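Supplementary Methods, section 5.1.

A reviewer requested that the exact input to the structure prediction be made available. We therefore reproduce it here, unchanged from the version used in the analyses.
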Amino acid sequence: MPIGAAKSSQRSMMSSLSGGQTSQRSVVSFTDESVGSGGGKGSSKHPPKAVEKSAANTTARTVDTGRGSSSPSRGSDQDRSEKPSKKDSGSKYETTSASNALSSEGSSEKKGLKPGEGLYARKKARVSKFSIMNPLGFMDPQTKKIFWYTLFIVFFSIGVFNGRPSSTTFFMLRTMQEKILTAKTANDVTWETVLDIDSLWDWIRGPLFDVVYSDNTPGSKEGALLGYGYIINGIRIRQVRIVPEVCRPDLPEWAAQAFDLSEEHGAKCFDAVRAGAITSIRGTGNEDREPFGAIVGGERVFQWSENDAWAAWTLTELASYPPDGYMMDLPAFNATKALDVINLHQKHGFFDVQTRAAFLSLVTYNPNLNMLLITRLAAEMSEFGGIVTSSSFQSVPLFVYDGFWGVMQLAFEALFLLVLLKFVLEEVGWALHLRARFLYRFQGMFILLVFSLVCAVALLRATGAAAIAGQTFIGEEQRTASSTAVHTKFKDLDNIGYFRVMEDNILGVLSVVIYLRFFLHLANSTVLKHIYGMLRSALFEILPFFVLFIIVFLGFSLGFYVVFGPYVKEYRSFMRTIVTNTRMIMGGNSELYEELYLVNWIMAPLLYYTLAVTAFVLLFNVFLAIIVHTYAVYKNELERDPEDRLKDGIYTTMAWILSFFGIKLNLTNRVHSTPPPPPPPPRAPPPPPPP
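The structure derived from this sequence is encoded cell-by-cell as follows.
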C-alpha cells in the first residue's frame, strides 16, 4: 500500500474515533418520526423528564458502515443534521434524553406514556387495588356502587324482618278482637250493633263486664283476659261533649215548630265538635267543659279533666276529637267496685244528647310474648243522631331489642346506619362542592330523604320507650277511690299505638323507595338497558293517555258518588268512591252490582257497564298498544351481539347459579335473533366480447 494511502486510512480511523467520542458526550434528540410511527401526537403532548447528561445513561447511535466518517467535522455535521428544528418537527417538545430514546427504541410502536402511566405508577396502582385501606380497589366505580348499595339493602331488609311480630301476635289480636266484639247482651246486641245510648249502657253492663271481670280460664283471676292478658291500670271510658247552640234564624215556620222551643234562647242545635281553635261558620270551638249531672256534696258529679300529657287526639272517619273530656275509670281487679261505678254514672246520666263521642281504652300485657295489646273502642254520636261504632286493636313490644333476634335486629340496624352514614358523608362532600346545584342531584336528595325518615323512626321509638318507662301502677289507688274519682296518675298508652302505626308506615315507604332505587344502579346492564329505553320513550305517549284516563275516571266516579253516595256504603264519600271504582275496573267488587241495582235500577247498569267498557275495553287496550308499539321500536336492542351477553353481569350470575344444578346456559346464543338474510344470487358472467 502506498504511504499516502496508509496515512489517509489512519486519519480516517482517528476521525471516526473522534466522532464517536463526540456523540457520546452529546445529547441525541429524537422527534416523533425518529422514535417510531407509534408516537404520533400523543408523544408530542407529554414532554419526557430531563435526564442528567452523563456517559453512564447516554449512548451513541453511530452506524459503522465501513465507510465511516472521514473527519471530525463531517461527524459533527451529521449530528447537526440529525437535529430538526421546532418548525420542522411539529412537536412542542423536541429535546429528550438518550435514556428515553433507548426505552422508546425497545418498543418503537408504543404510544407516548401519559403522567401516571409509567412503570412505577402502574405497580403502585396494582398494589393499591389490594390494599387493606381500600379493599374494593379491584372493582370499577359502577360495580363498587352496586356492591355498597346491595349491602345497604341487605342490612335494611334483615333489620326490618327481625323487628316484625310473628304470626303468634296476629292470632293474639284476632282472638282478643273476637272476644270483645262478638260478645252479646241478652238482646243479642254486640259492639258493632250498638245504635243508641240505651244499647250502649246494656253493652257496658253486659258483654264488657263479663269479658273483663270473668274468671272462665282455670287458674286466672279478675283482670286477666284470655288467661294471660293482664289489664294495666284499669279501663278508662271518656266522653267529649258539646255546647248547644241557637239554630239558624231563617228556618221556615213549619220547621221551627218541630223543635222544643225555649223562651229564652229559642231552638237548640247540636253541631259537630269544634275543639280549640277549630272554627266554622258558627264561630270558634264548641266543646263543653262545664260540670254537669246531679249535685252531690255541693258540686256536680261529673267534672271535666285533662287527660295524660302523652294522650293523643282520636281520629275517626267522621271527625277528630281532643284527648281531654269527662272520665269514667273502672278498676281492673275489683268487679264489685267496677259495677258500682257503672251504676252511678248511668243513674246520673253520664251520656246524653250533648255527648258527641265516647271512647274506651283498654291496655293488656302478655308476659309470655312481652307484648302490649292496645284496645280502642269508639262510639260516635254525630250530629245526624244515633251511634256509629268502630274499633282498633294494636300490639306493641315492650322492649324493641329483646332476646337473640332483638340483638340481631340491633346489629343489622347498626350496620345499615353505618352504610347510610357513608352515603350521607359522600353527599355532604358533593353539597360543599356543588352548593346550590346540589338541589338538582337526585342521588343526594334520595339519601337525604332516607336519612330523614330513619331519624323519624328513631324519634318515634325513643318517644314510645319514654312513655312506657313513665308508666306507674295505680291499682291500690283504684281500690280505695270513690266511684266518681278521676285518677290523675293514669298513664294513657294510646299514643304508643299511634307511634307504632307511624313507624310501620315510614318503614313501608322506606322499603319501597330503597328497593326501587336499586333499579337505577342496574341501568347500565345490557339486559335492562333496552327496558329503560322503552319505558323512557313510552313515557311521552303514556302521559297524555294518563291525563285522558283521569278525566274519564273522575267523571264516572263523580256520577257514582252523586247517585249512590247516600245509599251504598262503598260510595259514602268521594275518596271511597274512587277506591271502589278502581277495584271495580281491576276486576273486584263484582258482587256490588246487585246492591247498586236495588238502589237505582236505571242508573246502575248505565254507569256500571259504561265504565267497564270505556275504562277496561278501550283505555286499557290503548295503553297496551302504546307499550307494544314502543317495544317494537326497541326490538333491535334485544338483538344484541353475543359478546355483550358474555359481559352482562345478570347473565353471568344466572349461569353461575344454574351451574350448581347441572344446567348449562349457553350465553353465546342470541336473544330474539332473526336469521341472517340469504346471500344474493351470483351474478351472471359478462357476455363475451364481440369478435
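Residues 12-110, 276-283, 669-674 have pLDDT under 50 and may be disordered. These observations are discussed further in the main text.
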